[in-house]
Design brief:
The complex is a heterotrimer of chains A (234), B (752) and C (434). Chain A is α+β, with helices and mostly antiparallel strands and 234 residues long. Chain A is built from 6 helices and 10 strands; from the N terminus they run E-H-H-E-E-E-E-H-E-E-H-H-E-H-E-E. The N terminus and C terminus of chain B are likely disordered. Classes of the chains: A alpha+beta (234), B alpha/beta (752), C mainly alpha (434). Chains in contact: A-B, A-C, B-C. At the A-B interface, helix 1, helix 2, strand 2, strand 3 and helix 5 of A face strand 2, strand 3, helix 3, helix 4 and helix 8 of B. The structure holds ligand MGD (2 copies) and iron/sulfur cluster (5 copies). One iron/sulfur cluster binds next to helix 1 and helix 5 of chain A.
């Protein structure tokens, strides 16, 4: 049976700690761009923690929302790409072929979630910071679009390992870097094709919503809304 | 690489290969992966330890082969070696159970930082100029020994040692070294060491350590200013518990109430956010306890013995909600409702941390919250709070004044006779208000040796820098004191070979001790820190006979493999709740530096999510991490309420001047709808003069305006006790914001 | 005053045959400007696209504005001239060629921008479908591919449309010059001898081309509009975009044509050919387009406002009240408020009047393209990811240089080919006499 990778984000667990942001940066060779570029919002993080206030002092509330590529089943970034650099994989993910990308940035405009980041310059790692680079993930170059891959290298490694051992993949296998690092377990990853997986169970939660569902992008990420406290069963 | 270098390195790798071959198999297993065992593209995971904050999380390091430019025997060249590629939590470690915070993961960049001190340095111009020249290890160590020999022999305090927050055998070694030289024990300077809470815990519970919380099973959490999901105490452990508290139990979602004046990352997650006036948190806690006791909702279990007295006093009308409503700024009905909710949702816990402990009356507030915990019956019960059981090293290492003594000693002239000062892992020049003149006082010391890995504001004053290995290149040990209810010892061998011409600080101390000879040589018989660790763990086996079954080598191997000692057959659980007589709570109003008329705003610095007290400002991943609430990167900022800003005609990003009686600073304004109208807040950590290319000359240090005021009866810095005034001095300062809007729906156009 | 065929021939060949001393400094100045633009582009290629001001989320800025603008300008020519030819408007005769040549040059300039704005321009050929061993083809679902084909088709069509009626004039020139120029014009005149059969074939070819080029021209700006409309971006994803863009293109195209004619009239002393009547007629056309433009803008804004969808309203208010407010009203002023009286009141619809109106329209239409692209991108669906855009000197230099290159190409062209079709004027004269 082929896999259908998906994620659930429990907003009731997410604390805005941003561990996932650094986990992804470390795992996926996401470069830092420096202050000048950061001021021009050219940072490269593949996952961001959106922060929205609701109300104001003395009754402020804050909503944190981790946003990464939603791996849309009906991804607006795909048809617009003239070179198929942004394409749909057989496991339903939105793949990004860096080598094929010519840098039109059309996909980034089309993505309603604004999760695509672009290499405005060659990435730089001041030596010896380059030694931290993960050899499993290619380093992108100038003029190339990139975004969350659902840690495709971890997915592939797990699939190959399981195949070599002639067994099916188990729960929690593979685990993307952001999910691995999330202490309150706000992020859950797994196979949506398996109705018994944790992620499938969460995707069916009555608290589950899709981000910008109305656009028909059919995201593979379910957001479980935060609850308010009333002492009752939920 | 040139051909000549290549030849050199052929010899060099050959030498290392022979070296590894001679070692005992168990050591090979423990240390870095031998080069010949590296398979290209195949990762090995090695346990390690996060030393970036006092939580002491267990780490797993992903090692893969790579070509690194290194220095060996004074020669530079490229060798193939195992390189750390990623840090994750050690899944078996009881504190962090497989998770690391953002900072912990960025710890990787400490090792690979381009501005590490790569070789011993000797000062070549005036103090603080930053001019150093490279010097060999032999010469450097000889110089230290000479200086030690030349000091006034009859003055014990002619040698002093200042460390950061430090536990375990590393601390043990330092103190043995000092004892051997007849010098006083090391003074700690640890801005995040929570001396106030420790004192309160000692007075109320008989433990001078930090508490652990069983959030997982608690149903009601009230936190007074504690950023327990971000930076405070053991944030990873607490975050794991928090997730379960919220969603881990079917049908039961715990309630979380946060009391603070500026919404923190933790407060942002609260179901109910309560703003009380600064410094009144203890009073609010007593008000809650009053309702609980008065209405007979608690305590549970019933209190016997001396504490009944305290309970009787709690019933006094002075603590009734009606009486304290004015002083706390929280309505009587709300206090009553909160107290009743708490009673109806057991188990409940109260936490205190952050600004409430940094007012002059911090100790009162801490005692009051501890009392509330006692009334709630949360000490030592499921869903409550615990103190991690003592282990062999903790018994020796902790004394109640540990965490505030550097400042106390410095201010009382404790360093005036110092002739040789050692500094390890601490930066008091940066993290204290200029009013204390730490820099000036240190500069009066004739000879300063720093083990710093970086040139920071303190190490730049040193005469000699003997750079330590990075944590991943070192033998590490630790005794986490919170975040777990079991006894835990963390121990890790180096995960990779050193990159630079650095040496492990403990090994250097041992070398100095042996060259110096005499009694210090005798108290420290070990050749290396590794030997010392082995011998102390041998004692552990002697002390805990149930671990002796398989012999020491087996146990040692197991400890190194799993990254520490816990879950053994003699696992120790937390001790029962103590029944110390509680100090009777006596409200002391907080004192603030500066008049309300001239300085209308309370100034609240807070521990930065990315940099903590500033010790992580050198890491580029941390600099570029948007702050969870302000979403600022690569700089500092001042938070103020949009209404206040409107009144002062300050807009998002305008440059403002913050002035106190003690100094001024300039920084961009950032609007925060979750901050009281009369409070302004600023993260700690930026404003470094030194500290590598990513941190130096960036942003402003809030310490520049903080008044040198101390917490009563404790002596630590009351960093939230300053009043300031604000003035807009320009438009559009340098500010990198990740967020394009404050609100998702309402007001999205007005507030940008 | 009725001219003789000899006069026509003398007046119109003059700019080609004698060159005034004023031309050289003009050429040099323009060439310098173009060189500055080219250097800026090379700097960008060498350093990285980051030297432009684009950023997240505004990934398109000045370059795509220029792209849409210049492709819009290109609608001046071929489309207008085709319509006028088919409707047999006699006043068209002196202006068709000036118009057609604008098309070709504006297309060339516009088509450069998709290359200039690429992150990796050296791989631009991957947009083209060429057989390769790996079996990789471009994505035909991408509107950028449609652009590729539409623009190339329009360019080829416009070139043919421009070159066909040049043949007889080249033959005329061939007979007036010697040396290398003779060779050049011989080649360009494709063996034209002016036989009945050749005239007949030329007329037929012109007629077919005039019919063919109209749908092609309409398709080009339709597809350019679909670059935007095919993406779920607030206020882009709209059915009105195709006609709105085509109307805007013709609008700016006519304005560009009027400006070019004014310059030609004065610099080449063509007062008697590019007459007030031409300007008056073009002015009327411009007036109609201005009204149509206003209608589209009004319809677009009203529907958005009435629909009151949250993401669209964020963009809507950005232009009405937010930081783009001033620019929005300058645009409305330039495209409607200012030109309307100039064009509607007969007394004001003079050469000067239409010229001023046209300059305003060209500026206004550039701003319109900018305001279509930037506010929408800066406020997409998730407010946390909202952002802004500031162009850099590189983008500004390249933008200014494109105007220089248009002028340069035009000037060079007018020195090689008579910008007013000699044979067509002669035909017109014959028709009016006969
Ligand atoms: N030592 C050595 N070096 C070699 C060779 C050799 O034999 N030995 N062979 C050479 C040859 S022939 C080749 S072709 C190159 C290959 O070199 P690379 O192109 O670097 O090939 P890989 O390492 O196989 O894969 C590149 C990256 O793509 C990621 N990836 C996998 N699937 C996807 C996806 O769907 N989307 C995205 N975005 N990423 C994905 C992988 O995780 C990996 O990080 O190496 C060359 N270099
Ligand atoms: N599992 C797996 N399979 C893969 C890939 C992968 O990443 N994983 N990568 C794929 C890719 S990208 C590629 S390019 C292919 C490469 O796969 P192959 O083309 O099979 O390449 P090699 O096995 O590296 O080399 C082929 C043979 O050429 C011999 N040889 C070397 N030099 C010479 C010479 O001068 N003359 C002749 N006649 N023979 C010579 C070598 O000894 C070897 O036997 O593998 C593909 N297959
Ligand atoms: S790691 Fe988890 S809790 Fe922390 S910000 Fe990311 S999703 Fe939220
Ligand atoms: S979230 Fe954006 S980048 Fe990811 S698949 Fe959807 S449209 Fe594409
Ligand atoms: S930027 Fe790259 S991936 Fe995106 S549409 Fe253009 S070519 Fe495709
Ligand atoms: S799934 Fe992987 S690539 Fe995507 S955000 Fe998480 S860590 Fe980054
Ligand atoms: S809480 Fe973070 S910084 Fe502190 S020890 Fe744990 S991982 Fe390291």
């Amino acid at each position: 049976m082929s896999h259908g990778w998906g994620m659930a984000v429990d907003l009731d667990r997410c604390t805005g700690c941003s561990a996932c942001v650094i986990a992804c940066q470390a795992e996926n060779n996401v470069p830092t761009v420096g202050e000048e570029a950061a001021q021009k919002s050219r940072t490269m993080h593949w996952i961001r923690i959106e922060r929205y206030y609701e109300g104001e002092f003395p009754n402020p509330r804050v909503k944190f929302r981790p946003v990464l590529c939603q791996q849309c089943d009906n991804a607006p970034c795909e048809p617009v790409c003239p070179t198929y650099a942004s394409y749909h994989t057989s496991e339903g993910l939105n793949g990004q072929i860096y080598n094929r990308c010519i840098g039109t940035r059309y996909c980034a405009n089309a993505c309603p979630y604004t999760v695509r980041t672009f290499n405005f310059f060659h990435p730089v790692w001041d030596k010896p910071l380059h030694l931290q680079l993960n050899p499993d993930v290619s380093v992108r170059q100038l003029g190339v679009m990139e975004k969350c891959t659902f840690c495709i290298q971890r997915i592939k490694a797990s699939e190959i390992q399981a195949k070599a051992e002639n067994r099916a993949l188990g729960e929690g296998e593979p685990t993307p870097a952001c999910v691995q690092s999330c202490a309150p377990k706000a992020l859950v990853f797994g196979d949506l094709n398996d109705p018994d997986s944790e992620v499938s169970r969460l995707a069916r939660s009555p608290r589950g919503t899709k981000l910008l569902d109305e656009l028909g992008t059919q995201p593979r990420i379910t957001y479980l809304q935060r609850d308010s406290w009333d002492g009752q069963d939920h | 690489m040139e051909r000549r270098d290549f030849l050199k390195f052929g010899v060099l790798t050959g030498a290392t290969a022979t070296l590894t071959a001679c070692e005992k198999p168990v050591q090979q297993l423990a240390r870095f992966v031998p080069e010949e065992d590296l398979v290209p593209g195949v990762a090995t995971w090695k346990p390690s330890l996060c030393t970036l904050c006092p939580a002491g999380c267990g780490v797993m390091v992903r090692i893969m082969d790579g070509d690194a430019e290194v220095v060996r025997n004074g020669q530079r060249g490229i060798i193939k070696m195992g390189l750390a590629k990623k840090l994750e939590g050690n899944p078996r470690h009881p504190v962090n159970r497989g998770k690391l915070c953002a900072r912990g993961q960025a710890g990787l960049q400490v090792t690979y930082h381009p501005d590490r001190v790569r070789t011993p340095l000797k000062r070549s111009a005036s103090r603080g100029s930053g001019d150093f020249h490279e010097i060999g290890w032999q010469d450097a160590l000889r110089e230290v020994v000479t200086q030690l020999e030349q000091r006034s022999p009859r003055r014990p305090d002619s040698i002093r040692f200042v460390t950061g927050d430090m536990r375990g055998q590393r601390r043990e070694l330092i103190n043995k070294f000092l004892a051997g030289l007849g010098a006083p024990p090391a003074a700690q300077f640890a801005p995040l060491g929570e001396p106030v809470l420790r004192r309160a815990n000692l007075l109320g519970f008989g433990h001078a350590s930090l508490p652990s919380f069983d959030l997982e099973r608690s149903s009601y959490v009230i936190s007074f200013g504690a950023d327990f999901l971000g930076t405070w105490n053991s944030p990873v452990s607490q975050s794991i518990g928090y997730g379960e508290m919220r969603r881990g139990r079917a049908g039961r979602r715990g309630k979380f109430v946060q009391v603070e004046q500026r919404m923190s990352q933790t407060g942002a997650n609260a179901d109910e956010w309560v703003s009380s006036s600064p410094g009144s948190e203890g009073l609010l806690a007593l008000g809650l306890a009053h309702v609980l006791v008065k209405e007979g909702l608690r305590p549970n279990p019933p209190v016997t013995g001396p504490n009944q007295d305290v309970l009787a006093r709690l019933k006094n009308e002075t603590y009734s909600p009606a009486q304290i409503a004015n002083r706390t700024g929280v309505s009587a009905s709300r206090i009553e409702r909160l107290a009743r909710e708490m009673a109806a949702q057991p188990p409940a816990i109260a936490l205190i941390g952050g600004a409430p402990l940094a007012h002059t009356n911090g100790l009162f507030s801490a005692l009051a919250v501890n009392l509330l915990n006692m009334v709630l019956g949360s000490l030592g019960s499921p869903g409550g709070m615990f103190f991690a059981p003592a282990t062999f090293s903790k018994k020796e290492a902790s004394s109640p004044t540990d965490h505030a003594d550097f400042v106390a000693q410095l201010l009382s002239g404790g360093f005036e006779n110092t002739e040789v000062l050692f500094l390890d892992n601490t930066n008091p020049v940066f993290a204290t208000p200029p009013g204390w003149q730490v820099s000036e006082k240190l500069q009066g010391i004739p000879f300063i040796v720093s083990f710093s890995r970086f040139l920071d504001e303190t190490s730049v004053l040193a005469d000699l820098i003997l750079p330590d290995h990075s944590p991943l290149e070192s033998w590490l040990d630790d005794v986490p004191e919170s975040g777990t209810s079991e006894a835990v010892l963390t121990l890790a061998a180096p995960a990779m070979r050193p990159l630079h011409n650095t040496r492990a600080m403990p090994d250097v101390l041992l070398e100095i001790a042996h060259s110096y000879g005499g009694s210090v040589g005798e108290t420290l018989p070990w050749k290396t820190f590794e030997e010392m660790l082995q011998s102390s763990y041998r004692q552990l086996v002697r002390a805990e006979p149930c671990d002796r079954a398989d012999g020491f080598d087996k146990l040692w191997e197991k400890i190194l493999q799993q990254g520490g000692w816990w879950d053994g057959p003699c696992q120790v659980r937390s001790p029962e709740a103590t029944s110390l007589p509680f100090p009777a709570p006596e409200f002391v109003p907080p004192a603030f530096d500066g008049s309300e008329e001239e300085f209308p705003f309370y100034f609240q610095p807070y521990v930065s999510q990315a940099f903590l007290d500033g010790s992580l400002a050198h890491l580029p991943w941390m600099q570029e991490l948007p702050d969870a609430l302000a979403t600022v990167m690569w700089g500092s900022w001042l938070e103020l309420n949009p209404k206040t800003a409107e009144r002062l005609q300050i807009q998002q990003g305008d440059l403002v001047q913050v002035r106190s009686r003690h100094g001024t600073l300039e920084t961009p304004a950032v609007l925060n709808p979750g901050i009281a109208f009369d409070v302004v807040a600023m993260p700690m950590g930026q404003g470094h003069a030194q500290f590598g290319r990513y941190a130096a000359r960036r942003g402003a240090n809030p310490m520049n305006v903080v008044a040198p005021v101390q917490v009563e009866q404790v002596g630590s810095l009351a960093w939230a006790a300053t009043r300031v005034s604000l003035a807009r001095i320009g438009t559009k300062a340098r500010l990198s914001l990740a967020s394009g809007a404050l609100y998702e729906r309402e007001k999205e156009l007005e507030l940008r | 005053m009725v001219k003789t065929t000899e006069q026509i021939q003398r007046d119109l060949l003059r700019p080609v045959l004698d060159t005034s001393w004023r031309v050289t400094p003009a050429l040099a100045g323009l060439a310098l400007l173009v060189l500055a633009g080219f250097s800026a582009w090379m700097y960008q290629v060498y350093t990285g696209i980051g030297v432009a001001g684009i950023r997240r989320p505004v990934f398109w800025g000045f370059y795509i504005t220029n792209f849409v603008f210049w492709i819009g300008i290109s609608h001046a020519g071929t489309l207008i001239s085709a319509i006028l030819r088919l409707s047999n408007a006699t006043w068209r005769r002196p202006i068709t060629r000036c118009a057609e040549v604008i098309t070709v040059f504006a297309l060339l300039i516009g088509a450069m921008f998709p290359l200039i704005h690429l992150g990796r321009p050296w791989l631009a050929f991957w947009l083209a479908p060429y057989p390769n061993q790996r079996g990789l083809w471009p994505n035909y679902r991408s509107p950028l591919l449609w652009d590729f084909f539409a623009i190339n088709t329009y360019l080829i069509g416009s070139l043919i449309f421009l070159m066909l009626p040049i043949i007889p004039d080249c033959a005329l020139l061939r007979d007036h010059v010697s040396g290398w120029r003779n060779k050049l014009y011989s080649a360009l005149s494709l063996g034209w001898r002016g036989t009945q059969k050749q005239w007949h074939r030329l007329e037929t070819a012109m007629h077919i081309m005039a019919i063919l080029i109209i749908p092609v021209a309409v398709s080009v700006h339709t597809i350019v509009s679909w670059d935007f409309a095919m993406t779920p971006v607030p206020m882009w994803h709209s059915t009105i975009f195709a006609p709105y863009f085509v109307a805007g293109a013709i609008f700016s195209g006519i304005a560009a044509l009027i400006i070019a004619m004014v310059f030609l009239r004065f610099s080449l002393r063509l007062e008697e050919y590019l007459t007030a009547e031409c300007f008056d007629n073009l002015g009327k056309l411009l007036l109609v387009m201005s009204l149509l433009w206003f209608y589209f803008v009004f319809a677009e804004r009203l529907t958005t406002w009435y629909g009151n969808a949250r993401p669209e309203m964020a963009v809507f208010w950005l232009a009405q009240r937010g930081p783009y407010r001033d620019l929005f009203w300058v645009m409305v002023g330039c495209n409607f408020v200012f030109p309307f009286p100039l064009l509607a009141i007969k007394k004001l619809r003079t050469i000067a009047g239409t010229f001023l109106a046209s300059v305003a329209v060209v500026i206004g239409m550039w701003i319109e393209r900018y305001l279509i692209i930037v506010p929408s991108l800066s406020h997409k669906f998730l407010p946390y990811a909202w952002g802004t855009y500031r162009p850099t000197w590189v983008e500004v230099t390249i933008t200014v240089a494109t105007f220089g290159s248009m002028a340069l190409l035009y000037l060079l062209f007018s020195k090689v080919v008579p910008v007013v079709s000699i044979w067509e004027l002669k035909t017109g004269l014959r028709e009016s006499e006969g």
